[in-house]
Amino acid sequence: MWPADLYVGMGATESGSESAVIEVLTSGAAVEAYRSLGSLGRVGFQFAATVVLALVVLGLVQGYGTRTVETARRSPVISICIGLPSGLVLAGLASTGYILVGQSVGIFFGIPLVLLGGTTLPILLVLGFVAVGRATMARLGRDRLGSGILAGSVLCGVAGFSIGATILLAVLVASLGIGAFVRVLMSAGGTTAPDERTVPPANKI
Questions:
Q1: Interacting residues of 172 by C-beta distance below 8 A, sequence separation 6+
Q2: Which of 107, 114, 167, 189 is deepest in the core (most CB within 10 A)?
Q3: Secondary structure class of 118 (helix, strand, coil)
Q4: Which residues, 6+ apart, have CB-to-CB distance to 119 below 8 Å?
Q5: According to the model, what pLDDT value does residue 200 have?
Q6: Digit-coded pLDDT (tens) for 89-107
Q7: Per-domain residue ranges for the chain?
Q8: Rounded to 5 degrees, what are φ and ψ at 176?
Q9: What is the phi/psi pair of residue 103, to 5°?
């Protein structure tokens, strides 16, 4: 009797944990909490979230993060053109996973898709804000990464006065960050610095 009872208990525990995960992923509590904030609350939240996430991302993946910011600054139009469809693909995958999570059959496929979109999109959005902030500060003679983080966070915070402006700006900046990151990944296998290029023996000095 004891092994059977243990099996039933474990099954109940796993079922409860699975239900808790589904409830968290399918609830709109975070969205409702954000919408319930006042204008100043949204400004402060967006500013603080951008600063913290930018510091964490650029600290953990400094190589790819810095190259993404530089690529976005160097050619923003190309990055946005690449990032807009790529962002739609990521958002579509996350939405598909969100729908699958609510179904018992698709939970194992839905959670990875939700996690992929829920982690990738905010990170690249923040890198896009850093790129915009650094480009702005460079025109003022302060071309440093720290200044870019601060300016990008201020821009993100100021957009919090209007939810519509926040959504529009987030779409554009996220497209910038996603496109720049895709271009960095595409060029990762090639030569990125002039010193790394192979010189034919006949042309060596």
A1: 80
A2: 114
A3: helix
A4: none
A5: 54
A6: 988 888 888 888 777 766 7
A7: 36-187
A8: -60, -50
A9: -110, 140
